[in-house]
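Slide 14.
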Amino acid sequence: MLSVKDLHATIDGKEILRGINLDVRAGEVHAIMGPNGSGKSTLSMVLAGNPAYEVTHGEATFAGKNLLEMTPDVRSHEGLFLGFQYPVEIPGVSMVNFMRAAINEKRKYLGEEPISATDFLKLMREKRAIVDLDSKLASRSVNEGFSGGEKKRNEIFQMAMLEPKLAILDETDSGLDVDALRIVAEGVNKLRTPENATIVITHYQRLLDYIKPQIIHVLYKGRIIKTAGPELALEIEERGFDHIIKEAENEGKL
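Slide 15: predicted structure.
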């Protein structure tokens, strides 16, 4: 589904990604972990097409198409979704209008007819229940006055509505209490199918207690320095990142 090879990227002339190699297949859940400043959020932004970042080398394909040639809206229509670490508020734009416009733009791109008002409201009710999103919140402006937990629930609600092939969740656990974390994670799990995939970006093991990845990568100084199974998260929890970084230095990966 997603194939990234030797990807380098800069922002404001500073190189952040220094040769990322990553393959994600349908049905898989990957976790990307690493210390602050390693390039985790940069990777998510580059894959989503944030124009502030410049790809200087490498390639990325998504569902067999050149991802780097697509504009951000086309990437979304093709099935890539980014859940932001800090979701923004959009005053004056209701969630209902926002989501209906997003869905109809995707349907237009795919050559489908716009969704009817009745079908849209039915879809909203179904998807809202996945993350226990209050109907009053769903009728307000996008994220305006929402708590941190409500914003993250809203992100997963939007993901449910758009039904992406690949969801990239950038530190979804940031700022969540235990109950909100559980609800958000359960929502992510309910949306998993053999046809889609998820990349979870996180610092901590606690999110991975709820969202179970098959593959974990450690990102450091713009490179993936170790890839392993779920046991790697427990190793990081017990020993931190330092010993993995030292191993990578000894193996000449840094």
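Speaker note: The mean pLDDT is 89.
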